[in-house]
Amino acid sequence: MEDQAKQLRDELHRLIQGYLDAPKKVPVFFPPELVERVVAYVRQAVSQGSSMAQCSDQLHISKARLHYWIYGRKKTVRSLRRPPPPPPLRPVQVSAQMVPVYDGVRERRYTVHSPAGWQVKDLTLKELTEILRGLI
Fold first, then answer.
1. pLDDT at residue 21 in the model
2. CA–CA distances in Å: residue 2 to residues 24, 41, 97, 113
3. Of all residues in the chain, what percent carry a pLDDT higher than 90?
4. 54-108 residue pLDDT tens
5. How many C-beta neighbours within 10 Å does residue 50 have?
6. What is the rounded CA–CA span in Å between residue 111 and residue 121?
7. Which of 7, 8, 75, 99 is 20 to 30 Å from 14 by CA-CA measure?
8. Is residue 88 domain-resident?
9. Are 19 and 28 in contact (CB under 8 A)?
10. Burial class (CB in 10 A: 0-12, 13-18, 19+), 69
11. What is the DSSP secondary-structure string of 46-70?
């Protein structure tokens, strides 16, 4: 267990030192696989009776960062899984007029006008509904 702590501590130290030596001050990026190994080590150590503070001292990382890696990361992952936004509505105009059909009875026929300039004429209500649903 102590060897594993030393190995993780050395990896964390090398990573942090590399960022400190950089010409620009940028936040340290910890690879997810390294974070997962640290979390697994801490969970194992805590199950054997160590405290989070002792693990923090062994690994030379702050208690706050360790706490975030163990408990806080799942909250941000869940918040990123939002459902996709609904598709935007497409603006069209629909006009209707009564026209005579082959049996002499007047029926309502619809025309769809798009903002791009195209038109679809002589639609029944069923056909109009299908076209409008297809635009969503």
1. 77
2. 34, 10, 84, 74
3. 30
4. 999 999 999 999 989 988 755 545 555 677 777 777 788 899 999 887 887 888 9
5. 16
6. 4
7. 75
8. no
9. yes
10. middle
11. HHTT--HHHHHHHHT--HHHHHIII
Residue 12 neighbours by CB distance under 10 Å: 19
| Beta-carbon count within 10 A of 63 CB | 13
For 87, residues 6+ apart whose C-beta sits below 8 A from its C-beta are 136
Instruction: Looking at the structure, tell me whether residues 73 and 113 fall in a common domain.
Output: no
Q: Within a 10 A sphere around the Cβ of 5, how many other Cβ atoms? A: 20
Residue 18 lies in a domain: yes
- Tokens (6 digits) for 7: 């190995």
Query: How many domains, the chain?
Result: 2
27 and 60 assigned to the same domain: yes
CA-based nearest residue to 94, from 121, 130, 70: 121
Tell me the two tokens of residue 45.
């150590």
pTM, entire model: 0.51
Instruction: Name residue 93's beta-bridge partners.
Output: 113
Domain range for 39: 2-80
- Give yes or no: residues 60 and 7 share one domain: yes
